[in-house]
Amino acid sequence: MAKPKLIVFDLDYTLWPFWVDTHVSAPFKKVKNHIVDGSGRKIKCFSDVPDVLNKLKSDGYILGIASRTEWPEGAEKLVKLFEWDDYFTYKEIYPGRKTTHFERMHKASGISYSDMLFFDDEARNIVDLKKIGVTSILVSDGVTKQLIEQALQSFKS
């Protein structure tokens, strides 16, 4: 079975259930075992995400983030607070087209688009990346273990 050499995730509505640039506010901080925003609201990721990231990394996959958020600093801070930095080799977090994010990951990694697997909640990004050869999966309600398993089983099959 063919395996992707790089698995990339969007952030908003893919790894966490909100838009970082409009639904939460600074400053972010950890209080006990929770992350809270400036209004004291608890911030959570989708429930399967920690296990998914841990399993993929322990299985030897290289992981990346491609986010077109208007608030890169906020997204970066949350990635740190969720303690996800060790999972991601590539992080492209800034406004613009996802094709730019992937072009930079391709140049940095030497991995071809056809060896990449991408998860995102926005159809426009899926369409753009399929055009350049990235296997792209539309996420409807956050990344789940089942979605990852199905994507890995169908990758290049």
Automatic annotation (TrEMBL):
Gene that specifies this protein: Mdp1
Xref: Pfam families: Acid_PPase (PF12689)
Gene3D superfamilies named among the record's database cross-references: HAD superfamily/HAD-like
Cross-referenced CDD domains: HAD_MDP-1_like
GO MF terms, alphabetically ordered: acid phosphatase activity
Signal peptide: none
Superkingdom as given in the UniProt entry: Eukaryota
InterPro entries assigned: HAD-like_sf, HAD_sf, HAD_SF_ppase_IIIC, MDP-1_euk, MDP_1_eu_arc
Stated name of the protein: Magnesium-dependent phosphatase 1
